[in-house]
Design goal:
By secondary structure, the chain is mainly α. It contains 25 helices and seven strands. It is globular and about 75 Å long. The chain binds zinc ion.
Length: 599
């Protein structure tokens, strides 16, 4: 374990409990169980009766349900954070498992409440959701019922669930087993090396072009060996998806995802069309990158080649200072809140054995401030990670005035503050660099991140649409899927990037296609939404700030559409989505200027 500047930066969990053996943990669990039993005795059978419950009765139920969930969350958050910070300790593993079991017991007792609400007659439910006494819960109550028209009868749902284990879920497991066992053979410095999927993908970021080329060849050669089974798995899952859509009365394969995202289909169509219209921004950047790499044209394996000079090392105290200053320039409130995370021990940043990798922000319930975990290793990527997670943290702090059921945001707006925070810190850092090579590396990295989340995820979604359309007519063959993949990508890369024919296997290892179909457009949505908001901030200046803070304070208390309306955002207006691309275009223009200085 190498030493780093974040050594000793650990979180202080004493706001939750004093230790894994704190007797209050068991006391809270006992109390939750007792309260859930009382809740069940008082409310079971009182919702799904003709005419529905009295609004005040429903309100009491919702408030009590929230309180039980909050207490439960306090214990499960504590167990989860202890475990994330030190997964090797047996007593933490034991606590996590115990809490999980007890929480399931309690939640099973509460489950009837949701189900009874969903069973209520539509008109009765709508009248209640719109009642003044239930004002705080109107959105939540309506939300729960969105899937009601698509539910099967209870015995049918049960059969589907049980059969899924040997059906859809089994195919998912088969895919995971095949892709995680893949071994890629590559000769490096005269030695034959055996690499995993993530190791071979990492080589595509290396400066050595010959190495990148051979890594890509090895990747697709190995994937092509599994063409029959990978296509078969995908084909079976699409057929299952189409069958369930028919049984559940969904009009198209994306509809279920739209419902979960609280987004209507036309807004997604608009967003995807505008994204495609902006593919030429990518072509310009790829040509520019070819020039920077002194190549006549990029080949696919040059896409992630490094340019410029990396800004390093970046010690933790400097990250703290940069982030706080960048946030302060946006809003003093942002700085104030972020400072608390550093000063009050809400961040665990040091790298140590047994600690979970990656980074996350836990904002489990409004009565508690959020906690952040990351693994800080003194480079720029980690500064951006801290800025990102702190953005989540500020969102979690600002929305603490919401009650438990209104606290969380849907996927589409979950990154509203995190990506915004990253943009603030990014701009702050670029402005302070004198070396154009360092600026170049910073901006190119930002552009390539944006391309990966906006353009590429759009390509993936277009590909899924095409494959689903094809499957309606006939069983899929490896040949046909490969062609559709090359077509969807061809529109994005255009003449600017050469695609080797072996790239036809590029679809075959992407887990989203298997485990969470039509998920990828949510990335486009989230990223573009924030870039557009950031553009608005730069256009409107200080006047934008209070509206934005209000948006964060609202948490998940209404639909994204309703919450963003006061900011003048209209998801159906192509001009709104275009703002995000103007921001990306601006970044590409900055690279153009730098390139003129350097090349
Ligand atoms: Zn995030």
């Amino acid at each position: 374990m190498e030493a780093n500047s974040a050594a000793g930066i650990r979180w202080d969990l004493s706001d939750l409990f004093s230790g894994h053996d704190d007797p209050r943990i068991n006391a809270v669990l006992e109390e939750c169980l007792k309260r859930a039993e009382g809740f069940s005795a008082r409310f079971r059978g009182t919702l799904s009766r003709p005419g529905g419950p009295a609004p005040e009765h429903l309100l009491r139920g919702l408030e009590e349900w929230e309180e039980i969930e909050e207490s439960l969350s306090r214990v499960s958050t504590y167990a989860g954070l202890l475990y994330a910070a030190d997964s090797a300790r047996a007593e933490y593993q034991d606590l996590e498992q115990k809490v999980e079991q007890r929480a399931t017991e309690v939640r099973n007792l509460l489950l009837f409440f949701k189900l009874e609400w969903m069973e209520l007659d539509g008109e009765v439910a709508e009248r209640l959701a719109g009642h003044a006494a239930l004002k705080n819960y109107g959105h939540y109550l309506r939300n729960l019922r969105r899937f009601a028209p698509h539910r099967l009868s209870e015995p049918e749902e049960k059969i589907v669930n049980e059969k899924d284990n040997a059906g859809k879920n089994a195919f998912g497991r088969l895919f995971s087993e095949i892709t995680s066992a893949l071994v890629f053979t590559l000769e490096q410095q005269g030695e034959k090396r055996e690499l995993t999927l993530s190791e071979i993908l990492a080589l595509l970021h290396q400066p050595d072009r010959e190495l990148r080329k051979r890594a890509m060849e090895a990747l697709y050669q190995e994937l092509s060996r599994h063409e029959q089974v990978l296509t078969f798995v995908y084909d079976a899952l699409i057929q299952d998806h189409l069958t369930m859509d028919r049984l559940r009365r969904y009009p198209d394969p994306m509809r279920e995802r739209h419902l979960a995202n609280e987004i209507d289909p036309q807004a997604v169509d608009r967003m995807m069309e505008v994204t495609e219209k902006n593919y030429p921004i990518a072509h310009d950047y790829f040509r520019l990158k070819a020039k920077l790499l002194r190549l006549p044209q990029l080949v696919l394996y040059d896409q992630y080649a490094p340019v410029g000079k990396e800004l390093t090392p970046f010690p933790f105290h400097q990250a703290r200072q940069s982030i706080l200053e960048a946030f302060a320039a946006f809003s003093p409130r942002f700085r104030e809140l972020a400072e608390e995370f550093f000063d009050r021990g809400w961040i665990d940043a040091e790298v140590r054995k047994g600690k979970r990798g990656g980074a996350f922000c836990a904002a489990p319930y409004p009565r508690l401030h959020p906690y952040i975990l990351c693994n800080y290793t003194d480079n720029l990527r980690d500064v951006m990670t801290v800025a990102h997670e702190l953005g989540h943290g500020l969102h979690g702090c600002l929305s603490r005035k919401q009650s438990f059921l209104n606290y969380d945001t849907p996927l589409t707006t979950a990154e509203t503050a995190s990506v915004f925070g990253e943009m603030l810190v990014f701009d702050y850092l670029v402005e302070r660099q004198a070396d154009p090579q360092v600026q170049l590396a910073l901006i190119a990295g930002k552009i390539e991140d944006a391309f990966a989340t906006v353009f590429r995820q759009n390509v993936l979604t277009r590909f899924e649409q095409a494959v689903f359309a094809k499957r309606q007519a006939a069983r899929l063959t490896p040949q046909a899927v490969g062609e559709l993949w090359l077509q969807a990508n061809g529109r994005y890369y255009g003449e600017a990037v050469e695609m080797p024919d072996a790239y036809r296997w590029g679809w075959s290892y992407i887990p989203h296609f298997i485990h969470s179909r039509f998920y990828c457009y949510s990335y486009v949505f989230g990223q573009l939404l924030v870039l557009s908001l950031y553009r608005m901030y730069r256009e409107e200046g200080g006047g934008f700030v209070p509206k934005y803070l209000e948006l964060l304070e609202a948490g998940g208390s209404d639909s994204p559409e309703a919450l963003l309306r006061p900011l003048g955002v209209d998801f159906h207006d192509p001009k709104f989505w275009q703002k995000g691309f103007d921001e990306i275009r601006g970044l590409v223009e900055r690279v153009e200027k730098l390139a003129a200085q350097i090349v």
